[in-house]
Design goal:
single chain, 265 residues, alpha+beta, D-amino Acid Aminotransferase, Chain A, domain 1, D-amino Acid Aminotransferase, Chain A, domain 2, nine-stranded mixed beta sheet, four-stranded antiparallel beta sheet, 7 helices, 13 strands, 30% helix, 30% strand, globular
Length: 265
């Protein structure tokens, strides 16, 4: 739902703003307060006033209705920009942010993910690496790289060569009965689905390590999966064009995590 973005909007011109993508099931937003809390944390870093939570919820519900998506799965995007004003880099002293929402159908993937390593690197030292800012061009380019080699999703390392994330998801893998995921310090977005997997591993007593390690770790992995709020746990079938091995223990761990996360959704 939007009246249109003016050509002077700083989100359009400079990527000055934030967004959240939520899943709606039969018109019901999933975890809206958690998404709004993450946006609020981003506002603190970007120096933006907090959006009105009630208005945000209303806009998202209206977007679902306007798109005729009261049934089934929908991806709802809430966008918050710094608004117009302030030529160049300097914002007005009292910005007037813009808040709007859109909705679109969101089907679950029908096949396992094929993952490929991108040349694009994630800047772990940037304060924006841990927030969903509107400056998403690196992610766009990484996904293009993946599609060019017949993969579904890209895996990004940071500028130190450590695994960070996927283009639009958090990254996990299993080896030797242990679940691994990159450390947030690697430039990782603190995903809500990522947090659920970490909680599920804890509830199951599953060994889990948060690590700083290069992409060679995925060459040894017995299972790889990526997570986000729309797709939940998306299991990979291929890494760098090669099929992942079939490993009974890894599959048992993966299924236990899926079951545990499903219980808490």
């Amino acid at each position: 739902m939007s009246a249109g973005v003016p050509l002077s909007d700083r989100g359009l011109l400079l990527g000055d703003g934030l967004f959240e993508t939520l899943l709606a099931l039969d018109g019901v937003l999933q975890d809206p307060l958690e998404h709004l809390a993450r946006m609020a944390r981003g506002c603190a870093v970007l120096g933006l006033p907090l959006p009105d939570s009630e208005l945000a919820l209303s806009l998202m519900q209206a977007a679902i209705a306007d798109a005729g998506l009261e049934r089934g799965r929908a991806a709802v995007r809430l966008t918050y920009t710094a608004g117009s004003g302030g030529r160049g880099l300097v914002r007005p002293q009292d910005p007037s942010p813009s808040l709007f929402a859109t909705a679109a159908p969101s089907a679950l993937p029908t096949a396992p993910a094929r993952l490929a390593l991108a040349r694009v690197r994630r800047n772990a030292s940037s304060p924006t690496a841990h927030h969903k800012t509107l400056a998403y061009l690196d992610n766009v380019m990484a996904r293009r790289e993946a599609l060019a080699v017949d993969a579904d999703e890209a895996v990004l390392c940071n500028t130190d060569g450590h695994l960070a994330c996927a283009a639009a998801a958090n990254l996990f893998w299993i080896e030797g009965g242990v679940v691994f995921t990159p450390d947030l310090a690697c430039g990782v977005l603190p995903g809500l689905a990522r947090a659920r997997v970490l909680a599920a591993a804890g509830a199951l007593g599953q060994a889990l390590q948060v690590v700083k390690i290069g992409p060679e770790a995925l060459d040894r992995a017995k299972a790889i999966f990526v997570t986000n709020s729309l797709n939940g746990l998306w299991v990979a079938s291929h890494w760098q064009g090669q099929p992942l091995p079939t490993d009974t223990l890894a599959m048992q761990i993966l299924q236990a995590l899926i079951d545990q996360v499903s219980l808490n959704v």
